[in-house]
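Entry for the shared binder. Reason: the reviewer on the internal report wants the predicted structure included alongside the sequence.
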Amino acid sequence: MKNIKTLGELKQAGYQHKTIKEELRANLISKLRKKEKIFDGVLGYDHTVIPDIERAILSKHNIILLGLRGQAKTRIARQMINLLDEYIPYVTDSEICDDPFQPISRFAKELIAEKGDNTPIVWLHREERYAEKLATPDVTVADLIGDVDPIKAANLRLTYADDRVIHYGMIPRSNRCIFVINELPDLQARIQVSLFNILQEGDVQIRGFKLRLPLDIQFVFTANPEDYTNRGSIVTPLKDRIESQILTHYPKEIEISKAITLQEVKLTPEQKTTVHYNDIVATMNEMIAFEARNSEFVDSKSGVSARLTISAFENLISAAERRTLINNEANTQVRIADFYGVIPAITGKIELVYEGEQEGPFIVAQNLISKTIRKVFAQYFPNPDKLKKKKDNNPYKVIKDWFAAGNTIEVFAEMKNTDFEKALNNVGGLQEVVQQFQPKANKIEQLFFMELLLFGLAEYSQLSKNILEAKISFKDLFSSVFSGDIAFDEEEFNN
């Protein structure tokens, strides 16, 4: 087909005209029958969002994807081009990609009337049939629809009464394409009104011209929920003209969230070689976001983007990598202490309510990490709160007695692997408790669980934990209270 150069050759080849919505529908039907994947890399939507989108395409609907930030709305829209035909023909030099069989512009109609079957055509690849506009308050009707171009009028020596002086905006130039408007509520209401006729009747209204351009466009809009403060809203008549509204959501399961993060993180070959992590670390990284979405300090209407866990995981790996570089070590394992290196990735990704602002973003981020450690600890070791009445059978008694004797342990961000191992092994009873409850753990896993045990006991107020710059120290809880090392009730804050 690509070798066809004229309208006559196109007719002889038996090419059939299809609208873009018919293209999307036909190709979707083919993929569904072949059980091919429609949206690559979009996880967690197999039984919710994707079926809704498929139904909308089969119905030949325009679509609005409504959901909080970081829910793959734009990625879904961009992947819809995979449902288009690989190439389509259009009239050569047409500004709005006129279909040779269904021309709508004056230019294309006059050219076909003049040359007939000799009308030259060119082919447009599906990658070029996608246009995207971020809605901002400064977007004008001229940007989207078009306006009179005085320079064109002067060059062509035409009056303003001639429609050839029109400069088309992004939407007419996206004829036969997928056109996406991101963050639709940010578009001023008067600009949203200009879309009414395009969506319903296909009219294009530019200045005083009486134009009837039945544009062939698949519209996809994205928006955050309208009740999100500080944003605009979608005017009701426009929303009424968008046939399918599809609600997106955050991953409902840790495993799906983890798969998304590991798919999206950008690690260098050096990081993959030098830094190792276990599945618990990856799970903890996701739990931070889950904790944030349920936190009383974080604005739930703003949402907690999946970008938080992606950035946090990259920071986590970099924190461990930095340690190898400083100590000139070949490799290292991600430690619990490294999670405090992801705080910058958290503070920039959450929007706080009033109570959160009072605490401060740094404290809130620490609180999210603490809650995560607390929950993970309880999955691998007995809950200390449930052991309070069993003093004789308390497996943590030996550890607590070791600290009560005046011993302390300090963990540094840049601590060498050998020093880190030596410090943990010095804590009385620590290794024995790990061996009791995690008997299958190998040596590396044992060290991780030993560190988790220390942090977990601190989160359950069995030990004192003090963070000072790059140093985390663990002490006996009661001696720390009397010495004034504990500045606030950590257990009360975490609860």
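Summary line for the report: Residues 306-327 form the longest helix (22 residues).
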